[in-house]
């Protein structure tokens, strides 16, 4: 019965995506939804940017195994990214009327920087989208009580998301996400109300967590510890700013004010609502401590799904798994579209011998979406066989954009002297510092190699722009 309701929900999502395809008249409709979306839909899409498998399964598992400080990258860093994007980036980028975030690097620094930044941005999505698809596999495995393996579930989930994303593009993302966000908010609040009755309310859960030091958040008062804390916050807080999925949600707004406030309010909503899955998962300590102990040895990400399946009535299970599928698919569809259109627009398009018609370019985007979905599926199965955690996959996704893409974006928008020399120096020095340190530093090092690479990128941008700019002026006879 539960599986039948879930199949029905999947069918409704696909139907919405196929209906959205009727609104696609060309490439701009496919990528930006015609820049026509109102505030409530933009807010829902921004909220859904990060509210996926990571928030419902990965973050609660990390909180149970570690403490609140273990969540510095997500939800705190993720919410910081969305709020910062709205306040400092959305308005400027919206006014430029770009198709992708990669277009900014071309307009500001030239084709070569566009190519390098766009490849880095696209690669960063491999782990993020794979985390969503792997979570779909986990859900199908739990729902079928093992009859569907997690690998088979990955294949099913990837096929469903691909179906409605490839036909409707951003319109599919917008309409399905709005529907899915309604399911998420109402569904998880209803589940929280039921679970609260079983635990005696919210306060007993908070008291248990406090007694076990789960609210430790701030680092020790030492330079290394504070830098490590800052690194965890900014890896996602800064590293995910130059991302196509964040940009495309704001860029689809009907005005620059909608782009700004949709991003800011979506980030605030994400941070607040991320507390609900934490409460639900940690409640298992009071409801079924034996199950928690068993799953901590096996896979902490299964604690919340098993709690719902083992202790709540059928209707509540239908609501929860519908909400869980909603959060995963809403995130997966947008993050599948984002790297695909970046590859099409900023990598492949410039390498072709002739200019494509709009119809040809639309079909190129759809072909790349399909190919990227296949790559994501393969990587998800590989990650599953190597016991890679969802939280780890998400944390690693934005190291490359922090080192390669963030500094040129900020400098290009806010420093008039930034130039292509500085952009190349930032990318080159950042990468050449970061990659070797990934192998030389211990995995448990307080300060991540990527954060050191980020610092090197800042030095490269300043030095390269000043030296290169002075050299260019001298060659032209200005000095």
Q: How would you characterize the overall build of this protein?
A:
By secondary structure, the protein is mainly α. It has two domains: 397 residues, Sodium/glucose cotransporter; 60 residues, no CATH class. The longest helix is centred in the middle third of the chain and has 50 residues.
**Strand-pairing-aware structural class:** mainly alpha
- Helical region count? 23
| Cα-atom radius of gyration | 22 Å
> What level of helicity do the residues show?
over 70%
Proportion of residues in extended strands: under 5%
Mean pLDDT: 87
Work out the number of β strands: 0
CATH topological fold name of the largest domain: Sodium/glucose cotransporter
CATH class of the largest domain: Mainly Alpha
Q: What is shown here, in short?
A:
The protein is an all-alpha fold and 479 residues long. Helix content is 80%, strand content 0%.
Core attributes:
mainly alpha, 2 domains, 0% strand, 23 helices, 479 residues, single chain, Sodium/glucose cotransporter
């Amino acid at each position: 019965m539960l599986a039948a309701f879930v199949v029905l929900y999947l069918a409704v999502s696909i139907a919405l995506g196929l209906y959205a395809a009727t609104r696609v008249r060309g490439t701009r409709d496919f990528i930006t939804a015609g820049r026509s979306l109102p505030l409530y839909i933009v807010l829902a899409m921004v909220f859904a940017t990060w509210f996926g498998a990571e928030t419902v399964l990965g973050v609660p598992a990390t909180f149970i195994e570690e403490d609140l400080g273990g969540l510095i990258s997500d939800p705190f860093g993720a919410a910081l990214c969305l709020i910062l994007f709205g306040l400092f980036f959305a308005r400027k980028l919206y006014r430029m009327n770009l198709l992708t975030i990669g277009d900014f690097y071309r307009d500001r620094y030239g084709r070569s920087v566009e190519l390098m930044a766009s490849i880095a941005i696209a690669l960063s999505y491999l782990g993020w989208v794979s985390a969503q698809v792997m979570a779909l596999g986990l859900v199908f495995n739990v729902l079928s009580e093992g009859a569907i393996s997690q690998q088979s579930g990955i294949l099913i989930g990837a096929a469903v998301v691909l179906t409605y994303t490839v036909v409707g593009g951003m319109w599919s993302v917008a309409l399905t996400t709005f529907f899915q966000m309604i399911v998420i908010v109402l569904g998880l609040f209803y589940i929280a109300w039921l679970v609260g009755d079983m635990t005696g309310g919210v306060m007993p859960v908070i008291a248990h967590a406090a007694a076990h030091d789960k609210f430790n958040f701030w680092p020790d008062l030492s330079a290394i510890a504070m830098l490590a804390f800052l690194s965890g916050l900014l890896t996602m807080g800064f590293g995910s700013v130059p991302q196509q999925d964040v940009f495309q949600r704001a860029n689809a707004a009907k005005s620059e004010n909608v782009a700004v406030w949709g991003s800011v309010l979506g980030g605030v909503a994400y941070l607040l609502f991320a507390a609900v899955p934490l409460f639900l998962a940690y409640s298992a300590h009071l409801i079924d401590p034996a199950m928690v102990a068993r799953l901590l040895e096996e896979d902490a990400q299964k604690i919340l799904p098993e709690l719902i399946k083992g202790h709540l009535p059928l209707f509540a299970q239908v609501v929860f798994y519908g909400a869980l599928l909603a959060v995963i698919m809403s995130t997966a569809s947008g993050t599948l579209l984002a790297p695909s259109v970046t590859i099409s627009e900023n990598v492949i398009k410039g390498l072709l011998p002739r200019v494509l018609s709009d119809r040809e370019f639309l079909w190129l985007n759809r072909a790349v979406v399909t190919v990227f979905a296949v790559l994501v599926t393969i990587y998800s199965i590989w990650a599953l066989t190597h016991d890679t955690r969802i939280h780890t996959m998400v944390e690693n996704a934005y190291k490359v954009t922090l080192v390669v893409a963030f500094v040129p974006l900020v400098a290009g928008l806010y420093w008039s002297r930034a130039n292509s020399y500085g952009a190349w120096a930032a990318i080159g020095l950042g990468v050449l510092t970061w990659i070797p340190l990934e192998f030389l530093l211990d995995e448990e090092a307080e300060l991540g190699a990527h954060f050191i690479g980020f610092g090197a990128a800042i030095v490269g941008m300043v030095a390269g722009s000043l030296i290169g700019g002075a050299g260019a002026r001298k060659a032209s006879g200005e000095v």
